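To whoever is on call:

I kicked off a structure prediction for a single chain this morning and the downstream step that reads the tokens threw a length-mismatch warning. I double-checked the sequence; it's 293 residues and nothing unusual in it as far as I can see. Pasting both halves so you can look.
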Amino acid sequence: MTSKFMNDIKAFGFMLPALIPLMLFWFIPFGYIAYLSFMEWDFMNPVKTFVGFENYQALFSSKKFWDTVRVTLWFCAGSVIPIILGGLSLALLLSDRLKGSFIYRTLMFSPWVTPTVAVSIVWSWIYEPRVGLANTVLGWFGAAPVRWLEDPHWALVAVLIVTIWKSAGWSMIFYMVAIRNVPRPLLEAASLDGAGSMKRFLYVTLPLISPTTFFLFIVQTISALQAYDQINILTQGGPAGSTRTILYMYYQSAFQSYEIGEASTVAMTLVLFCLLLSLLSFWVGKRTVHYNA
């Protein structure tokens, strides 16, 4: 018993350097946000008023909140799926056999290492209705100009284009490594059995890179839920709330309206949303992801 107790103490001692920052910068702030979600507070007044579940009731009965949830789901689906498919397509296209592939890979990856604020500012010029590059290109094909950031029907599309353009190259890098690690003997055996290139991809390569797909899905979904910079620079959640995600609603409630109780409730809802989505993803992953021993 004594030996086991001492081993537990030693193990705890080794974990302590990691537990301290985790406690200071995650558990304690999370607990404080949970506490504030039951309060009414304007950030300036030192007095906090306990209101129980009124903040949650008001939030879940708000049309604004459910419109925000709808926009968030559209943003997640509209960014995560194209980023994964785009990254896979680029990885297959820019293989080592392609002449100059290193240059193309560098160009495709460069948006990821560029600050999102800088990228968003450049794209705001591209989307300029009168002289922007986007409408200039549309004009070459005889299409009418689009008010990309001012039309509620196009604003979310414009933000998605920026998000996909920035992240597809990052996804490409992971897929290139995964495809390179697919065992050659399996591909050769499938070829000897008469499988063409498409069948080898669908029945050999695709299942073996499924862990990478699963990883990218989780990471990109979390990134989509945390998207802020491009939305703030391009649209500020507008027009008419058409690009307001849950995280941006939190920002508006906390730092524009100073409704800290409502903002904390939104933050707790976002955490719960991420938790449920992660559990669902891992449940699906257990049934669809193939780990190559």
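Update from on-call: the warning came from a stale cache, not from the record. Cleared it. Sanity check on the structure: DSSP finds 13 helices and two strands in the chain.
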